[in-house]
Fold this sequence. Notes:
By secondary structure, the chain is α/β, with parallel strands linked by helices. It has one domain: Rossmann fold (3-Layer(aba) Sandwich). Helices cover about 45% and strands about 10% of the residues. The chain contains nine helices and five strands; from the N terminus they run αβααβααβααβαβα. Strand 4, helix 8 (about 160-180) and strand 5 (about 180-185) form a beta-alpha-beta unit. Mean pLDDT is about 90; it is low at about 1-20.
Amino acid sequence: MHRIFWIATVVLWCGCGNTEKPAPQPAAPSAPSAPRAAAPAPADPRPSIVCFGDSITAGFGLDAGQGFPDLLQQELDARDIHYRVVNLGVSGDTTQDGLARVFMALAEKPAIVLLELGGNDGLRGIPLAITQANLAQMIEAFQTAGARVVLAGMSLPPNYGPAFIKNFEAVYKNLAAKYKVTLIPFLLEGVGAHDDLMQRDGIHPNAAGARHVEALVMKTLMPLLK
Length: 226
């Protein structure tokens, strides 16, 4: 009798032990979902006006937004003329430097290119034949791409001598005639040699001078804008 009771107790104890369920384990934390990449900004559909030049285009010595390309964009917007202005000015660039980076301007698929280079060539005494050849190659590249070119002519300080200055200015006139491009004979017309419109170096326009340059550029561009 005692043996039967002991066996029953053992069986009951084992059965109870087998019915116990394991304690629930905490769920593993889920990995944080990767943030969604922001959708790329839509491309600006407006045709571009590329200002391709040196320090005058880059706005050397001016605060942000004071260079003539920035002012040009502001005026276009104010007039509800739908073009975007791309400033590809690099201070110190010669025509050889510009030729080396002309692909940057072509990548913008420009409708119009304002080509403002050559001043540093003249200041450095680079042979005029080289300056003219480099500008010619750039004009040809832009015209082949379907862009209309506005050539911004430059001049030099009086100490370079009247003969050299005359020949330097003729580079722009000759190119404009050969390639039938719009010419601004002197981009700093009415600004150069005016102390109130120029920076202390006598080479770069100040903020007030840049507004005069923009007005000249805008006047020249108006017949070309659709």
